[in-house]
Amino acid sequence: MPGGGLRDRRDRAVDGAHTGVEEARHYVDTGSPEEYRGGRVFIVGKRNSGFEIASGLLAWTSQIVLASPRPVDTARIGHLAVRTRYLNPLDEYSRGGAGALVVDAAIERIERRGDGFRVLARGTTWPGELVFEADHVVVATGFKTPLLDLPALGLATVSGGRIPALTPFFESVSVPGVYFAGNASQGSPGLRKQGLASNSTSVNGFRYNARVLARHLAETKFGIERERPAIERERVLPYLLSELAHAPELWVQKGYLARVLSVNGAIRDEGILPLEHFVDEAGGDAVAVAVEMDREGRIYPAVYVRVGGRVEEHPLAPHPTHLFESDVYGREVESLLGLIPALRA
């Protein structure tokens, strides 16, 4: 199972025939914030890693500049697991504070000047040359999964070859038997309902993917049957409501992971499974619950009912304090459970 962590490619950190990038630090070598006390820091890159560094160093430095050609996709930030890392530097910049600049610019050259640097850039959304003086330059771009020789063996990729293309159980779509854990599990996109991605790029998300993968491998490769405890009919409703209200897997991996109960004679807890797998699987009668989010950032519970091989999706209304264990949701979920003949009261 190749490692799923994303590693840098220094030679791709700055596009084109740029010079001087070898003089800069890379994200993985950022070091302690004390090293940047009172200094001016120029960060190449305006995605997760760049803003992660900026957020961590903002209180230590006199100025931070983040630059890359593409604008920050502010419409997506509110749905990201790492949104707080973006918001501090963006807030400082948007209100005109001296602490941070967020610039749309292509880096043309990084020049070493004594103990510091001069960075020459060209604006993309604002046409013109830009020159920055900095005490430190950190490169936070050019990340990719370390696939080694796997692409030559037929491994399919996405995102410009940076990430392996994966099934819902994190297996290569083109090379059976090759699985990925960690950050690379974002190669299994899920349903991407309403265009929203999973939190598989962050440790708080891919940790739950890894647990799903471990159980899947234990069962399919080593013959170790996972526990599927039976649940009494009267316990089904409170159990599902409790999962909707509290299960970390569902809350962190919204619209991506689901709690699944199968109904085949006995009612059995199938555990946490990829929602995409449940929707696409031609299995027996079952019910799955998931916590989801719409484009406006509203969080709501969803119930998926499979009867006779056909899956129906039932989104429920959001609640301002997420009281998904309340009687209102109880009545709705109980009604949906009645769609499965064996669960009718």
What is the element layout, followed by pairings?
Elements: E1 7-8, E2 25-26, E3 40-44, H1 48-57, E4 63-68, H2 74-77, H3 83-94, E5 100-113, E6 116-123, E7 129-134, E8 136-139, E9 143-144, E10 157-158, E11 163-164, H4 203-222, H5 233-246, H6 248-252, E12 257-264, E13 266-274, H7 275-280, E14 286-293, E15 299-307, E16 310-315, H8 327-337
Parallel strand pairs: 2-8, 3-4, 3-8, 4-5
Antiparallel strand pairs: 1-9, 5-6, 6-7, 10-11, 12-13, 12-14, 14-15, 15-16
Quick summary:
By secondary structure, the protein is an alpha/beta fold. The chain is 24% helix and 27% strand.
Task: Write a structural description.
The chain is an alpha/beta fold and 345 residues long. It has 3 domains: 7-143, FAD/NAD(P)-binding domain; 145-222, no CATH class; 233-343, no CATH class. 24% of the residues lie in helices and 27% in strands. A 7-stranded mixed sheet has the order 2-8-3-4-5-6-7. Strands 13-12-14-15-16 form a 5-stranded antiparallel sheet. A two-stranded antiparallel ribbon has the order 1-9. Helix 1 (48-57) crosses helix 3 (83-94). It is elongated.
CATH superfamily of the largest domain: FAD/NAD(P)-binding domain
Strand order in the largest sheet: 2-8-3-4-5-6-7
Q: Domains counted in the coordinates: how many?
A: 3
Low-confidence stretches: 1-18
CATH class category of the largest domain: Alpha Beta
CATH topology title of the largest domain? FAD/NAD(P)-binding domain
Strands, count: 16
* Envelope shape: elongated
